[in-house]
Design brief:
Length: about 290
């Protein structure tokens, strides 16, 4: 799994992306091309600048080994911000929760776009998110933002279930986490919730069958944008209601890199078992 690399403006069709690349930078992490360093009392901080939807964001990444993958800004997160920009998505007056936020970039943008946003991640990550809120969100908007610890499969019942939007970028990356993530999504989602999941589909981690096979058993799934060279797709999900016809957007696995044929039985977690439509048991034990 690699963090964000710079992608050409033409492919992403985003507007005003400061970090847009020249050819020679394309394979480098995005923060190498426009990055500054700083320290607080204990931690090295790296800064990256982005422009989305008319907002200039300065995102801090804390170089703390405990943060691991949370201290990167992932391509899937940038792609979701660009999707909001391209589609003029607004969250005005809407109740939003972001899962696995990392630096907070997606949730912060949702708040700047008018949302009442709860940004969540594991506890160690919250200091980084709070720093980014204090830098990027004007005082007048801060009352619309909360930062809370939410470990999937453990904490979701402490949260309400009346969200208009659930956001997640690059949170489908390890099959070990999928049962807990699915449990969390199903708990937080109501009939009126729209979920945006932006995912980089990687072979060998079960992300393709998770989107292709598991999610459609619980949600209407639609790919609303895709970034072919990086195999990133933004999915729009809504909860399947009783009596509703299940809508699946087709063979999403066409997005997968061609080199390896997906074999669910070979995934580290032991593979997925196809769940027949109508079966609605707890997800555990089926991965
Ligand atoms: C690949 S990073 C993506 C970060 C950010 N969304 C982005 O796009 O830049 C995955 C994030 O999911 C969080 N995460 C992983 N497992 C989790 C769990 N079980 N509960 C809550 N968050 C989790 C990690 O802490 C990390 O911030």
């Amino acid at each position: 799994m690699k963090p964000a690399t710079v992608v050409s403006q033409g492919r992403l069709r985003g507007k005003n992306i400061k970090n847009m690349a020249t050819e020679q930078h394309r394979q480098r992490p995005i923060y190498d091309s426009d990055e500054n360093e700083d320290h607080d009392s204990t931690t090295l901080i790296r800064w990256n600048n982005f422009d989305f939807c008319g907002f200039s964001l300065k995102i801090a990444r804390m170089m703390d080994p405990r943060l691991g993958i949370s201290s990167y800004i992932w391509d899937a997160g940038i792609s979701l911000c660009q999707y909001f920009e391209k589609e003029d998505v607004t969250f005005t007056g809407k109740k939003v929760i972001e899962l696995g936020s990392g630096t907070g970039i997606v949730g912060i943008l949702a708040a700047l776009l008018g949302g009442h946003v709860t940004i969540t991640d594991k506890p160690d990550t919250l200091k980084q998110i709070n720093s980014n809120i204090s830098i990027n969100v004007p005082f007048a908007c801060r009352h619309r933002l909360k930062v809370r610890p939410l470990t999937w499969g453990e904490d979701q019942t402490k949260f309400p279930t009346d969200y208009d939007f659930i956001l997640g970028s690059d949170i489908v990356y390890s099959s070990v986490c999928y049962p807990a993530l699915l449990e969390t999504l199903r708990y937080l989602c109501n009939q009126g919730t729209t979920i945006y999941l932006s995912s980089e589909l990687r072979t060998g981690n079960g992300s393709i069958p998770f989107h292709d096979v598991i999610l459609p058993d619980y949600f209407n799934c639609e790919v609303v944008t895709r970034l072919e060279p990086k195999c990133i797709a933004v999915y729009k999900l809504t909860k399947i209601g009783t009596g509703h016809v299940r809508r699946v957007c087709g063979p999403l696995s066409l997005l997968a890199p061609k080199k390896k044929k997906e074999n669910p039985q070979s995934y580290p977690s032991g593979g997925f078992e196809r769940v027949m439509p109508g079966s609605r048991g707890p997800p555990f034990g089926r991965f």
